[in-house]
Amino acid sequence: MRILFVQLPLQGPNWEDVAANVPLAAGYLTAYAESLGLLDRSEWKILDEDAMNYGSDSAVVARIASEEPDLVCFSLYAWNLERSLHVAAKARELLPRARFIAGGPEVVDGMPILSRSPFHALVKGEGELPFAALLQDVRQHKPLSRIYAAPETLIDLSTLPNPYLAGTLPMKRDGTIHFETMRGCPFRCAYCYYGKNYPVLRRFPQEQMTSIINAASQAGCGEIYIMDPSFQFGSDLAQRLKLIAQANTSGIPIHTEMRLESVTPEIGELMKAAHIAEAEVGLQSINQKALEAINRSFDKEAFSRGAEVLQQQRILIKTGLILGLPFDGYEQVIETFDFLGMQGLGQEAELYPLSFLPGTDARERADEWGMARMELPPYWVTSNDWISGDDMIDAVAAFEESFDVEWAEPPAPHFLREKEGFCSFVDTRKIENIDWMRLNPQRLSNSITLLADADDPESLSRLVRVARDLKRDNPYTLYQIVLLSDTRIPSEKLIARIQDAFVYPDHYYELTHYFSPDPQEGYQTRMFFATRNFALAYRAMEEALDLETMVILSGKTGYNAERLVELLPYVIFDREGIPFDRLYELLTIYADYPSMLIEAPPNLFD
Ligand code: SF4
Fold first, then answer.
1. Which end of the chain has the smaller Cβ count within 10 Å, N or C?
2. Which H or E element spans position 218?
C-alpha cells in the first residue's frame, strides 16, 4: 500500500507563510497507526515539500500522480480548502484507482463538503481513531465508508505517540517544532470550533513534553510552538513552566497561547526562565456586551496586570482582536484600540474580522445578528446590525494609523527566476516565453511575476489569450504583473483588460484582503507599473491609483533623494550594479519599508 499525505500551504506572493505549513496532522495519524501495527514506515510519505509549498496547482497534481499512491489524504483548513478540492479533483482524473480521503476542521456537518466533494471518504473530528478504522477497512479490503467519525470517547492521549519522537516528522536544525501538551479547551467561545471538537480537557504525559523539548534542544531547533489554545489552564501551570525551563537547555524561544489574566509576577518569572518569548492572547474586544454574546469574559485589571508583568519580562504579547462582533459598532471598536494603545500592546496586535467557521455557534446565530458574510473561506463577516462594511474598512484604517502598522501587507513582485525548482518569473516581452508558460503549467510556481512591455500590443494580446489556459490549469496562482514603460503610464483600459484576464475573485488570498484600505482592489492579481523615468513614476503615483508604481534604479541612474523620501515608490535595483554609497543611501531611506526595495538580476530591464 502507498499512502500519500497532502497539506497545501497558506499562499502568499513571496511564500512568506510556507514555513508554518507543518503537516502535523499527518505526523500524528501515521505515528498512531504505526504504533498499532496498521502502517509501516515504507508505506506512506508526505508529498514532496517543494512541490506542495511552491508548485502551481498542476505541479501539485503531477507530483501526486507521479507517486502512484493507493490512498491520498488531504488535510483541509480554511486557507487551503478550495484549492485542495480543485487539486484532489484533478488528481483523481489521473489516478482512477486511487482512493482520496480528507479530514480537518473543514469536515463538519452542514458544510457542502459533506454532500459533494472529490473525496471517497471523510474523516470527521479528532483524526487518529477514525483514520485507524479506515486503515483497517483498507487492510481488510472492505469498501470505504463515506464518513469515519471520531467516537464519543476520545483517544487516551497517553497512547498517542508524538510525531517528532516517533520520527514521523523531522526535527530540523533551525526549524520550528509544533506540539500539543493538551487537547481540549474549557471555554466555549461562540466563533471557535476547537472546544466543541475536543469537549473534555486531556493532557499528554508530562514526560512527553520534556522529551520533545530536550530533543529539540539537542537537534538545534530554532523555535518551539506550543499549540495549546489555553496554555495557562490548570493549577499546575507553575510546575509545567519549571519542567520546560529544565528541558529547554539551549534556550529555544517558545511561542504559546494563553490568557493574560492568569499571569502573576511569579508566573511571569517562570515564563522567562522557560524561554517563553511570545504569548498570543485573545482579547477580541473590551465591550462587555459583545464579549457576553460570544461567550467570553474579560477582567480589565487582571489583563492589564498580566500585560505589565510580561512586558517587564520582555515577553512579546500578540493580542488578538475581532472586528465585526455583535454589539460592537465603530465607536466600540475604536475604544478597544484605545485601550490596547494605553497598554502599549497596539503595534503587535492582530486584528481579524469575525469568521463564521464551520460548526460554530456564531455561524448558527449569524442571521439573528444580522451578519452579512462570505460564503467561502475565510467566511468573514462583511457587515452587521452594528457596523457597516465601510465602517469596517475605516476601522482597519484606524488600526493601521493608531499603531503605525500595515494590516495586511500589500503584495510585492519578485524577480526570482525560479523558486525551489518552479518557474516564478516570466519575461513576457518575448512571445516564446508566453507560449512556454502555456505549455508547461506544471513547471510553474504558485506565485509568479510577469514582466510585460506596456507599449507592445502584440505580446500583451498574446498574454491575455494565454491567461484563459492558465486559469484553467492553475486557477489558484498569485500573479504580480509588472507593466514596463519609460514613455507613458498604462491606461486604465489596458490595466483592466490584463487584470480581468488573470483575476480569480474567490481566491482565499483575495478574500483575506477584503477590508484592506487600499486604492487598488486586486490582490491575487496585482498590477504594477515599472519605469526608469522618475518623473513619469511620480506622475503615475498621483494619477494611476489602480497601479503600484516602481522605479528602476541602475548604476547610471541619478535621482533626487528628497523626492524619493517624499513619495517612497517601490524601487527595483540590482545590489551589485549600484555604487556602495548609493546603496547605503537607499537602504537608509527605506529602513522602515524594506519590503519596498526589490532586487532584480542585472540587466533584466535592458
Ligand atoms: S477561542 Fe480559544 S479559548 Fe475560546 S473556545 Fe476556542 S480554543 Fe478555547
1. C
2. helix 206-219
Residues having CB closer than 6 A to ligand 1 are: 185, 187-189, 192, 194-195, 229-230
- 3-state SS class at 422: strand
Task: Report whether 4 contacts 61 (CB < 8 A).
Answer: no
Atom of ligand 1 minimally distant from the CA of 191? 1
DSSP 171: -
Q: What is the pLDDT of residues 254-263, one digit of tens each?
A: 999 999 999 9
CATH code, domain with 323:
3.20.20.70
The CATH number of the domain holding residue 98 is 3.40.50.2300
* pLDDT tens sequence across 460-483: 999 999 999 999 999 999 999 999
196 CA → ligand 1 middle, Å: 9
Task: Give the position, in ligand 1's atom list, of the atom nearest the Cα of 188.
Answer: 5
Considering the domain architecture, whether residues 273 and 357 belong to the same structural domain is answered as yes
Nearest CA to ligand 1 atom 4: 189
Cell of 236: 499546575
pTM: 0.95
DSSP secondary-structure letter at 345? Answer: -
Q: What is the domain extent for residue 576? A: 418-599
Question: 111-139 burial string, b = 16+ CB within 10 Å, else e?
Answer: bebeeebbbbbbbbbbbbbbbbbbbeebe
